[in-house]
Amino acid sequence: MTAIEDIPLTDVTTTTVRAACPHDCPDTCAMLVTVENGKATEVRGDPDHPFTNGGLCVKVNNYPDKVYNPERLLHPMRRVGPKGSGRFEQITWDEALTEIVSRFRATIDEHGPESVMPVSYLGTQGILNGLNVGDPFFNKMGATVSERTYCDSGACTAYTMTIGATAGVDPESLVHSRYIIIWACNMVSTNLHLWPFVAEAQRRGAKVVVIDPMKHRTAKRADWHIPIRPGTDGALALAMMHVIISEGLTDEDYIRDHTVGYEELAERVREHTPEWASEQTGIPAEDIRTLAREYATSAPSMIRIGVAIERHAGGGQTVRSIACLPALVGAWKNVGGGLLQLPLWAHPVNWGAHMHPELQTPGTRVVNQYLLGRALNGEMQLDPPINALMVYNSNPLVVCPEQDKMAEGLAREDLFTVVSDHVLTDTARYADIVLPATTQLEQKDLMFSWGHFYITYNEPAIEPLGEAIPNTELFRRLAARMGYTEPCFTRTDDEMMAEAYDWDAPAMEGITLESLRESGWARLNLPGPDEYAPHAEGNFPTPSGKTEFKSSIENNFVVPLFRQGSNDHQPGEHVDPVPHYVPPRETADGGYRLNLISPKSHAFVNSSAGDQDKQKRVQGEQSVILHPQDAEERGISDGQYVRVYNDRGQYIALAQVSEDIAPGVALSPMGVWRKNAKDQSTVNAVNPFRFADLGNAPTFSDTRVEVEVV
Ligand SMILES: Nc1nc2c(c(=O)[nH]1)N[C@H]1C(S)=C(S)[C@@H](COP(=O)(O)OP(=O)(O)OC[C@H]3O[C@@H](n4cnc5c(=O)[nH]c(N)nc54)[C@H](O)[C@@H]3O)O[C@H]1N2
Ligand SMILES: Nc1nc2c(c(=O)[nH]1)N[C@H]1C(S)=C(S)[C@@H](COP(=O)(O)OP(=O)(O)OC[C@H]3O[C@@H](n4cnc5c(=O)[nH]c(N)nc54)[C@H](O)[C@@H]3O)O[C@H]1N2
Ligand code: SF4
Ligand SMILES: [Mo]
Q1: How much distance in Å is there from the Cα of 194 to the middle of ligand 1?
Q2: CA of 132 to the centre of ligand 2 (A)
Q3: Which residues form the 4Fe-4S Mo/W bis-MGD-type domain (predicted)?
Q4: Among 66, 209, 286, 488, which one is least packed by beta carbons within 10 Å?
Q5: DSSP assigned state of 214
Q6: Which-ligand-closest: CA of 427?
Q7: Model pTM score
Q8: Using alpha carbons only, what angle is made at residue 580 by residues 579 and 583, rounded to the nearest 5 degrees?
């Protein structure tokens, strides 16, 4: 074979392929891939895409390194060493599939299909290869339904209860906002391509406020950073409403025409004075008044909530309260006014065609992945126990809480585990069979977005490496071996793509698969960002058609998208229909005095890229940021290794002492692999398994720890 450098320049065929970043990130960037003689040499952002605007990010701009990583899994493998050792031997696809299917069949025969459990999330966000790719297969099997609620499901429940499943504000309309509150979102790291729209608004005179325990990259660019105690945002929102109502800053016409339950809300917030909220949040009462007044009197005023807003006992009610604010002041009347959570709801994705919930046996057991450690190690006393696990698009050992219980469960000799991934992740090391998956450059897909109004087409740029296959092909092969004959199990990628969206929906007018393939992306057929004010005249997709201060949905629920389409066992327990305060669950009384939060890393996407050299260099090792006061009390100096611990577990972290973090709060970014950590455990070793109040959301920010020098 001729080495690339030996080929005369004139013989090199260079093409540019239109692709899409696959990551679970609101930006869903349009990528251009340079391919030279069949090898991808570069990725860059599409300069014509209004959101991507020519740039990718530190997580992805060396994507070819991920594709050609020498550690890539290129063949199926079978475990030969003890679980967790990472010792495997190469086998053929035929051997792998035969073994998987015979082990699945054996446990189904002996214990029933619920003894098999899939574990997956958003390793790729593609409609074909992402969230729902395995759902039809496991629904048909009757396997335990995997509830996947660790990202925004509590916020989705709360948001839907209040204003319905609406797209909310077009992120590009933010340039028109005059007052922007960025609430629990580190945009410059996690939603980078939205920042230029905020910066443009700021240039035009808008005030940008960040509410966050950490003065992070985004907060440093804001006009006002308001440090808050984690998990107390609900108190702040209620007190803002108290000020707005008691000082007559409401929009009476908007309230009369487009809301229900105002009397009950006004009654509820009467007791929630700024002084009361100050005690909960640590924010001076006068600052709370100023924030409420400025927010209510600037038009258009805008709130961007991050996913982190839901990660504590009262996360759901917090989002309920925040979602009431725009209607209270009539913010929705203007372009650039209102609330931005998940514009995903603008995308008419044909979810049913991907999940096939009708294949599910009614009454099938549901187990939440957030409890996976307990489900596997026996503490949940499941009957039947989980004897076979299939993991794809996820790395649960890093992203789920109670990491030690999970490691204990995964090490069970009687558990048969299959993992499909790009590399041998922490979870894959415990697998009995590992399967090689293609990366985005080797597979075809169509991308929705949870951060903007564009659909993006991902054309495969190169041939699959080794024997890697896309998830779609993996489930076609498995279904054939299991003898599943429904038409959905033999669909080609092109056929799946044709079903991906509801092409007849008004938002899809003028968009076809052919046009998408040609141009790489298209904006949904909605009014432009200079005109889009979806709720200027109300029209909320709630039962009443209004913002529901008092919700007509009075039971807790999980959006079916997060549970393989299942609507079983719904509705959940009764919920007070008027927003109220739910304080953090864990307090200093237990002896662990620091409130730990574990938001996203700057250089990883969840745990993805956590093993890539460049990203590891940028991110550094597992760290913990402490306020100088807290560090001094414990005799800790910057750069020292410390032990972070509570009753659930511990990990070793490099201490960073900084005024940027609020006193009493410790911050450890998530995503570091156990394999790369000092004592083989990372921040999720200490996080709790308990849910928040709505939508079975996680409580990663509702954790108490102590820290000591090692
Ligand atoms: N670089 C990078 N980008 C990513 C990801 C990644 O892993 N890395 N992951 C993607 C995914 S899956 C998601 S869900 C999004 C999430 O992105 P974001 O919504 O930005 O969420 P986080 O980064 O987890 O947390 C944001 C901020 O919330 C703060 N915070 C934590 N608890 C509380 C609280 O109780 N109240 C308040 N007010 N603030 C709090 C943290 O200090 C942090 O600064 O990012 C996406 N983009
Ligand atoms: N402490 C703490 N924990 C958290 C969070 C937090 O903020 N703090 N955030 C939570 C949130 S918001 C989220 S979204 C979850 C994320 O949880 P996950 O979605 O599990 O995220 P990743 O760890 O990135 O795992 C994705 C895996 O899928 C693999 N993958 C990527 N593409 C493909 C593919 O095409 N095929 C196959 N088979 N595999 C592929 C990747 O290599 C990677 O190993 O983590 C949650 N956990
Ligand atoms: S991770 Fe997000 S910001 Fe980075 S390239 Fe992908 S979509 Fe864009
Ligand atoms: Mo997420």
Answers
A1: 14
A2: 14
A3: 14-71
A4: 286
A5: B
A6: 2
A7: 0.97
A8: 140
Strands 39-45 and 30-36: antiparallel
φ and ψ of 549, to 5 deg: -55, -45
Handedness of CA 423, 428, 429, 432 (dihedral sign): negative
Q: Which ligand is nearest to the CA of 394?
A: 2
Going from the Cα of 187 to the center of ligand 1, the distance in angstroms, rounded, reads 8
Beta-strand (E) ranges in 442-568? 445-447, 454-458, 521-523, 547-548
Three-state secondary-structure class, residue 637: coil
All residues at 6 or more sequence positions from 342 whose CB lies less than 8 Å from its CB, including other chains: 152, 155, 156, 159, 168, 450
Q: Is 599 in the pocket of ligand 1 (CB under 6 A)?
A: yes
Query: Domain ranges in the chain?
Result: 4-67, 153-344+532-562, 588-709
With b for 16 or more beta-carbon neighbours within 10 A and e for fewer, the 402-439 pattern comes to: bbbbbbebbebeebbbbbbbbbbbbbbbbbbbbbbbbb
Among all bound ligands, the one having the nearest atom to the CA of 215 is 1
Q: How far is the CA of 673 from the centre of ligand 2 (A)?
A: 12
* Ligand 1 binding pocket includes 213 (Cβ within 6 Å): yes
| Fold of the domain spanning 4-67 | Phosphorylase Kinase; domain 1 (3.30.200)
Look at the alpha carbons of 380, 433, 64, 445 in this order and tell me if their dihedral is positive or negative: negative
Q: What would the CATH number be for the domain defined by 153-344+532-562? A: 3.40.228.10
HEC sequence for 6-27: HCCHHHCCEEEEEEECCCCCCC
pLDDT in tens, 602-618: 999 999 999 999 999 99
Say if ligand 1 is within 6 A of residue 598 CB.
no
CATH code for residues 588-709: 2.40.40.20
- Could you read off the pLDDT of 242-252 as tens digits, one per residue? 999 999 999 99
CA 307 to centroid of ligand 1, rounded, Å: 6
C-alpha 183 – ligand 1 centre gap (Å): 10
Task: Give Cα 653 distance to the centre of its chain.
Answer: 24
Backbone CA torsion sign across 422, 424, 425, 427? positive
Residues 183-211 have pLDDT tens digits of 999 999 999 999 999 999 999 999 999 99
pLDDT tens figures, 285-313 = 999 999 999 999 999 999 999 999 999 99
Q: H-type helices in 85-194, by residue range?
A: 93-111, 135-141, 153-163, 187-190
Model confidence over 361-386: pLDDT tens digits?
999 999 999 999 999 999 999 999 99
Ligand 1 lined by 212 (C-beta under 6 Å): yes
Does the beta carbon of 185 sit less than 6 angstroms from any atom of ligand 1? yes
